[in-house]
Specification:
Number of strands: 0
Distance between the termini: 34 Å
Oligomer: single chain
Helix content: over 70%
CATH class: Mainly Alpha
Largest sheet: none
Shape: elongated
Number of helices: 7
Number of domains: 1
Radius of gyration: 16 Å
Strand content: under 5%
Length: 125
């Protein structure tokens, strides 16, 4: 197995991320019959957290991350309203709007988060 440099490894990661993003764009997500509960259940399983804990008021980082993954996916891919997402998570719709906006910003510059989210999204669909 040939040795690769750190720079080459980073380039491979970028290419993988781009390929994953392109594969996701090819999927026709409008025909999905996923429900919020399906996404929440998978998100909890994927991130290794308990659904009951996610639905609490806890601000623990792993629970917040799960809520953000689920909220962002439901909002952007399933076109569920922020009011509906908020109702399901026991939050105000304005909290969901803010969470989705911040999550989108983080996805732009955090390659690791973007890869993790794309994997989550691809596995779910």
């Amino acid at each position: 197995m040939p040795l690769i440099t750190f720079k080459q490894k980073n380039e491979l990661k970028k290419v993988r991320s781009q390929i994953t993003a392109l594969l996701l764009e090819l999927e026709d997500l409008t025909n999905l019959e996923l429900k919020f509960s399906d996404v929440l259940e998978y998100g909890c399983k994927y991130l290794g957290v308990d659904i009951k804990e996610v639905l609490t008021d806890s601000r623990r980082a792993d629970l917040v991350e799960c809520r953000n993954f689920v909220s962002y996916f439901c909002r952007t891919e399933l076109k569920i309203t922020t009011t509906e997402i908020g109702f399901e998570l026991g939050r105000e719709h304005s909290n969901i709007v803010t969470a989705c906006k911040k999550f989108a910003e983080h996805l732009e510059y955090d390659e690791e988060l973007r890869d993790k989210y794309n994997e989550f999204k691809y596995d779910l669909i």
